[in-house]
Amino acid sequence: MDTYSKAVKMLKEAITEAINKAIKNGELPQAELPQFIIETPADRTHGDFATNVAMAGAKAFRMPPFKIAQAITSNLNLENTMCERFETAGPGFINFFLGNDYYSAVIRDVLANPETYGSSDFGKGEKVMVEFVSANPTGPMHMGNARGGALGDCLAAVLDKAGFDVWREFYVNDAGNQIEKFGSSLEARYLQIFKGDEIVFPEDGYQGGDITELAQEYADANGDSLIDVSSEERKAALVGYALPKNIKKMQADMAKYKITYDKWFFESELHNSGAVKEVVDILTEKGLTYEEDGAVWYKNKEILTNKLLAEGKTQKYIDNLELKDDVLIRKNGNPTYFTADIAYHKNKFDRGYNTLIDVWGADHHGHVMRMKGAMDAIGYDGDKLDVVLMQLVKLVKGGELVKMSKRTGKAIQLADLLDEVPVDSARFLFNTREANTQMDFDLDLAVSQDNQNPVYYVQYAHARICSILKSLANDGITPHECTDAELAMLTAAEERELINHLASYSSEIISAAKDYDPTKITRYVTQLATLFHKFYNACRVKGEDEGLTQARLALCCSVKAVIKNVLTMFNISCPESM
To answer: Which residues pair with 296 in a beta bridge?
Structure first.
């Protein structure tokens, strides 16, 4: 348990003991102990901790909160806590002020285990799968994939730090309608090379230049060998050539982006194993399908209506959703993407994952309720599927919107971004805005090497501390393990503020894990850098007092350790000089 959590636990026990004493000596009436919280005030000049116990107990004790607070504080013993004093405020708040032992313990905590500091057992080892990016392999990855990659990977890192057993997965849609369309598009471009404009390109085909390039590559290597074969054989050969190349490029882009998946799961595995057919059979056995116009349909509207009514939603609310049934098997006998997706999520649960987290683009918002309902329908818990919806990204340069790559003259792809912007900047900046907000990604900011660029600002704080340590080492001053008396010398407001921020790291990790929001950690570490610079400008590290110098060195080393801890967790480099 980290020092902050220990301090809260000790204080809660002391308050509970004081209430029991007050009841025993008649200052409070006999009643069930109230549920209360201990929190950190926004303005710490009013106290390091505050509790609402007096207000929470007003109903049970049938007394004004202020009198309850008096009864509690008259019996309160802070001897076994890390607090040195308290005061009451307002209608009955009790505020507590931490003592030197607390601040010393925080620094000792950090320096004892710098790599694992901030870790907790909050997740209790629960198996969680984070599926993210999962881009269509029929074309290059785009800006949405860039944001989703950074967000998903850093979310997985936060969950891992918070004590979950995390698995990262990329779902490759290498089967179904989009592959049919991919094959038809490649076929048309291939035939156009030899037969010209007499070959009409499919109306719903993929128009990207990458399709033309892949067809040309095949033709350059194999000539007109596919001209006289059947369409099915031709498409199979072209897809067999192009799809592995696209997937290999996706894997290379993810590797360059410093993302390593535990598994690349191929949709074709589901079809080949019979898993897709199995979910149709399950739904049919449950009476949740019907046939119409030669297709097999899933009773999505019925399932979701019943689910929403059970949750207390009104029929008017449900009607406004305009729910519809979904096709599972098309007229041509091929399953839809939705059917395969049901099978995929079933497969995830069958592999023993307690919670499934999907990172999807906001345009998939209508799919969330359908998939949760489908999980319920086949006998799983749809509430164990959580979807992080991610808004659009706009690229900005010089204050202007950028849509085309200068290098290729085409829409900007993930690969273009990683050629132009340092990977560290991309990973950090994409995690500075919550997923549910639209984002302007500033290309000028991302490549700048000044304090306006938040990742540079944080990295510079780390490098600055390394420089301080090196400079002092040249003067013969190296850090040693501080005594309690030395650490007790850290009493300046800037020092205490910095230590308090260090102490909150574990709770910030837990909060980010609870909310699926890694941006809390980029904000945390940016604030840590700010507080360090504030401390450095106010407090001279090398001073006349050797004990104070050592204490401040210990504080510098603690900040350095936590910055490295965060950046390493997010797979961002942590330079020692800049």
So the answer is: 291, 329
